[in-house]
Design a protein that fits this description.
The chain has 206 residues and is of the alpha/beta class. The protein has helices at 13-20, 44-50, 69-75, 90-100, 113-117, 192-205; strands spanning 4-7, 28-32, 59-65, 82-86, 103-109, 128-132, 155-158, 177-180, 185-186, 189-190. An 8-stranded parallel β-barrel has the order 1-2-3-4-5-6-7-8. Strands 9-10 form a two-stranded antiparallel sheet.
């Protein structure tokens, strides 16, 4: 059963404050820290300023695509609860987790069952598995049914072109947490009305 959600790619203070102060806030809010191809990417000074807020009930997630030491050092003092890591090996993941003392969301971009099988290599270093599309900055889909009958030892976060009008019951058997970004946007910007609709829908259907 879906137990919560993550809103990813937040990049402005108005949206962030609205989400944090919502009666039914998401469990997680994600910020794009080093992937410059994404329109939701935040330059380090803007990132620092943006997340200097009271998180209240939410957990802040640093979204990182194969991060180097430079970006990891720049964000180490920021109040992130989780690092969401793309394209990191289990050894790299373990090193980052130990050095920076953060919980880890290991992200896997999925095209076939082989991509899902890779997650087993991370069972000792990750806290949450995230299955996403191959699109990265683009809102693309993958066959969510690929993970439907697989048992995992950690919570599952599901992304990949999820939309606000989707029937959440379709995800109940395969995920614990819905990760949504582009589905909450209009013309590439986060849309407060869509966020309001989605957060209330998650509350009503969980």
């Amino acid at each position: 059963m879906i137990k919560g959600c993550k809103i990813c790619g937040v990049s402005d203070s108005t949206t962030l404050k609205y989400i944090i102060n919502h009666p039914y806030p998401p469990q997680f809010i994600g910020f794009i820290c080093n992937y410059k191809k994404s329109p939701r990417y935040l330059e380090i000074n803007k990132l620092k300023k943006l997340i200097t807020v009271n998180k209240k009930k939410t957990k802040f997630v640093a979204v990182l695509v194969k991060p180097d030491n430079e970006i990891l050092e720049k964000i180490k003092s920021l109040k992130f609860d989780y690092y969401q890591l793309y394209d990191c090996s289990p050894i790299e993941t373990q090193s980052i987790k130990k050095k920076y003392d953060k919980k880890i969301i290991s992200a896997f971009t999925v095209e076939s069952t082989k991509d899902i099988e890779r997650s087993k290599l991370y069972k000792d270093v990750t806290d949450i598995y995230l299955f996403d599309s191959k699109g990265y900055e683009k809102s693309m889909s993958f066959k969510h049914s690929l993970i439907e009958n697989i048992e995992f030892d950690k919570k599952i976060m599901l992304a990949g072109n999820i939309q606000i009008n989707d029937n959440l019951k379709n995800y109940y058997k395969i995920a614990d947490i819905i990760d949504i970004s582009g589905g909450l946007e209009t013309s590439g910007l986060k849309d407060i009305s869509k966020i309001e609709f989605f957060l209330n829908k998650v509350k009503d259907e969980t």
